[in-house]
Amino acid sequence: MTFSARDIATVAEILNEAATAEILPRFRRLSAGAVREKTSAEDLVTDADVAAEKRITAALEQAFPGAVVLGEEAVSEHGEGLLDALADAPLAFVVDPVDGTRNFASGLTLFGVMTGVVAKGEIVAGVILDPIGKDWSVALRGEGAWTETADGGRLDLKVAKPKPVDEMSGFAAWWLLEDPLRSQLAANLARTGSVSNYRCAAHEYRLLAGGHAHFSAFSKLMVWDHAAGWLLHQEAGGFSARYDGSPYSPLHRAGGLLCTPDEESWHALHAALFAGTEYARV
């Protein structure tokens, strides 16, 4: 199907409205009972996540009748079986109402709102909103990636120029992996120029697509964390593949994801990061 620039503008407007109504009024104003653990102390949900997802879901269902809408909190409550619909749905939206929930709950401004658009198992569009910066990055399959501002400004996005591995800067969440890969990747990251982690895929993908970082080694592959950002990175000229070298799909739920400026950089970085691991022979 064709998802138009007008359609993605509608999605961006919906995210903006939800952020204004449900997220920003709660920022740095959360009571103790408004923050809860899901699977661990690192995996949180707040009243803002729940309220924003409900508002976004209702608005998307109204704007795009018949579309499937899958939000992170709905899947958390009802099970990952809901994600099976992505393979065949003519039009589906995957929503992360507050990406970087732990940052949000801590009063840090590094959080975002993300929605990826999936048609028959393929990502066709995505939006990543920065509610604090009051701008949003957009990708349309085959039409590029750009950042828009509330005053109508637009900046086309392009990934960083390739560099040798020892000069690359990027992001990695190695602690989410199981040993021995966890320890092996952590040690091998010292071969890069620098590595950090923002606990927020929304901002990391925006930095990658804007040319402000060279790589990211993502460990978890829940679709709401990656659908919008993966396309943003691709449309900005980047290259990515799972740790085993296979192409990423929104249907994947495991396998890691390595993003770089181009394919040559991917192979060079992969060889450095996964030396001595189960993925070394890719």
Relevant terms:
single chain, 282 residues, alpha+beta, 7-stranded mixed β-sheet, 5-stranded mixed β-sheet, 8 helices, 32% helix, globular
Helices and strands: which structural class? alpha+beta
Helical content (DSSP H or I, runs of 4+): 25-40%
Task: Count every helix, treating DSSP H or I runs of 4 or more residues as helices.
Answer: 8
Tally of strands: 14
Rg from Cα? 18 Å
Helix-strand sequence: HEEHEHEHEEEEEEHEHEHEEH
Summarize the biggest pleated sheet. 7 strands, mixed
Cα separation of the termini: 34 Å
Proportion in β-strands: 25-35%
- In what order do the strands lie side by side in the largest sheet? 3-4-5-6-7-8-9
Q: If you average the pLDDT, what whole number results? A: 95
Shape verdict = globular
Low-confidence stretches: none
Question: Can you describe what's shown?
Answer:
With 282 residues, this protein is α+β, with helices and mostly antiparallel strands. It has helices spanning 5-23, 47-63, 72-78, 101-105, 181-188, 201-209, 223-235, 263-273, and strands at residues 35-40, 43-46, 68-71, 92-99, 112-119, 122-130, 135-140, 144-149, 154-156, 169-172, 194-196, 215-218, 239-241, 257-260. The strands form three sheets. The chain has a seven-stranded mixed beta sheet with strand order 3-4-5-6-7-8-9, sandwiched between helices. Strands 11-10-12-14-13 form a five-stranded mixed beta sheet, sandwiched between helices. The model has no long low-confidence stretch (mean pLDDT 95).
